[in-house]
Amino acid sequence: MAGIKVVIVDDSSFSIAVIRGILEENGFEVVGEAGTLEEVKEVVREKKPSLVTMDITLPGTDGLECTRAIHEIDKDIKVIVISSMMDDEIVKEAKDNKVSAYIQKPVDAEELITAVNRVLASDELYQYLEEENFTVFKEALMDGVNKMTKTLLTFKDEYVCEQEYISNGMTIIIGIIGKFSGSVLLDLSKETAANLAAAVLRKESSGSDETIAVMGEFANIIAGNACSILNKKNKALGLRVAPPSILHGESVCISVPDFNTKTAVSESKYGEILLNVGFKRGEDKWM
Predict the structure, then answer these.
(1) What tens digit of pLDDT does each residue of 170-192 get?
(2) For residue 115, which of 31, 62, 101, 166 is within the disulfide window of CB 3.0 to 4.6 Å?
(3) Which of 140, 96, 112, 94 is nearest to 15 (CA)?
């Protein structure tokens, strides 16, 4: 991760020298130092670091106030606390203030570099998932329809989902857990669901309950296959699917999740199928 810019916040010249030495020996670029709240704001605005190491005890302020100030400037800057103080209460406060990792002084070089690499790798991994997931899920839907019904599917529209919408009749939602959590949603009319279920079963379904069961398993296979592909590309993702939730009826309103998702509308022999998928960044898990 050479070229990553780091700012060190500490009021001890000794601690700054130790932290700077460890970081520079491992290829990181220390672009500034600060010891007060105003210095923190100034150096962060000027140097635009990707990472800030943060002492908790500072003259006239504290590390958590400085962390909040940093995130007001740029919410994507990662903060790692390095402090002699470390107890359950202060660790909880650090988590509540979006601190990405917490290390106790005296600083251990291996512990610091491991924490830095993990925090920064999390960003890179999420960016990778953001770039790859939509294409992989679309391909999984196409492949699933082809394998289970021996027919083709084409996509006719794509867009970022920004507002709630009314279901066409049946919505299958599958939660995804792992390094990052997310969801995949399939929406289709009851007629399309019945036609698709019949094609999968190679016979007419016995009723709405069987159609619902088939569509739940169909969506589960699509989501599971897509997650497997993403995991093969990067094992660190560790994605797993949860059992499907199925909504059906008249005027079912689908809310927009609290993270970015993309929608693709496809046309099949059996009718229109809407695919919506997305992942949220979440907070780094530590301690």
Answers:
(1) 999 999 998 899 999 999 999 99
(2) 101
(3) 112
- SS3 for 51-89, per residue? EEEECCEECCEEHHHHHHHHHHHCCCCEEEEEECCCCHH
Query: And the tokens for 33?
Result: 């130092």
Q: Classify domain 125-279 by CATH number.
A: 3.40.1550.10
Whether residue 189 contacts residue 267, with contact meaning beta carbons closer than 8 Å, is answered with no
Q: Which tokens go with 86?
A: 């470390």
Q: How far apart are CA 74 and CA 80, in angstroms?
A: 15
Topology (CATH level 3) of domain 5-107: Rossmann fold (3.40.50)
Domain boundaries, the chain: 5-107, 125-279
* 57 neighbors 85 (Cβ within 8 angstroms): yes
**Is residue 164 over pLDDT 70?**
yes
- Please say whether the beta carbons of 50 and 6 come within 8 A: yes
